[in-house]
Design goal:
Elements lengths: L1 H41 L18 E5 H14 L2 E5 L9 E3 L2 E3 L1 E2 L1 H7 L7 H20 L3 E12 L12 E11 L2
Parallel strand pairs: 2-7
Antiparallel strand pairs: 1-6, 2-5, 3-4, 6-7
Helix pairs in contact: 2-4
Length: 181
């Protein structure tokens, strides 16, 4: 009889422990969800509404030199937009190489997918942009003029399933620099 009462006490203790563990895990997940919600709501950029930009409109185009392009390159990482370069015939201009492949644009999301070494640190990102500007852009296009065009495009993630869900679609501001003759 003593063994049966001891067994009941042990079973009861285990049930109480499991209930306490479940409640504590539940409380921590609710606290995390609440903190994520508060952080999301406190970020002003979540409330920005981007106006769709008509790419064919001349109102959003201006002629710039490399001096005006460089500050844009330092901001694309922080503000998460895409910067593309084209020649006067519409062919994309190579900016740098990654693993032997030519890269024609600056885009943080694609750089993360490629596993670029400068991702993750603002300092290493700045050093990389400095290197690309000094070694490639200024020597190749330093004296050229570009037409700057803003547009909004929707990009989708490519996965193996071939299905595109709403989470896979991402609207992004694209700045195109088209080299003038």
């Amino acid at each position: 009889m003593e063994n049966a009462s001891q067994a009941l006490i042990i079973v009861f203790s285990i049930i109480i422990f499991v209930i306490a563990l479940t409640i504590s895990i539940s409380m921590f997940s609710m606290a995390r969800a609440t903190s994520d919600f508060v952080i999301f709501k406190s970020d002003k950029t979540n409330y920005y509404e981007y106006n769709r930009v008509d790419e064919t409109s001349k109102r959003n185009a201006r002629v710039v030199s490399m001096e005006a392009i460089v500050p844009t390159l330092y901001r694309y990482y922080k503000e998460n937009y895409r910067v593309e370069f084209y020649d006067n015939e519409g062919k994309q201009l190579e900016i740098y190489e990654s693993a032997g492949n030519p890269i024609y644009y600056f885009d943080v999301d694609d750089e993360i997918e490629r596993g670029e070494p400068w991702i993750g640190s603002q300092e290493s990102f700045k050093n990389n942009v400095d290197k690309i500007v000094k070694e490639k852009l200024i020597p190749s296009y330093g004296n050229d003029r570009f037409e700057e065009k803003y547009s909004t495009e929707i990009f989708t993630k490519n996965d193996d399933t071939g299905k595109v869900t709403e989470e896979d679609k991402k609207e992004k501001i694209v700045i195109k620099y088209i080299k003038l003759k």
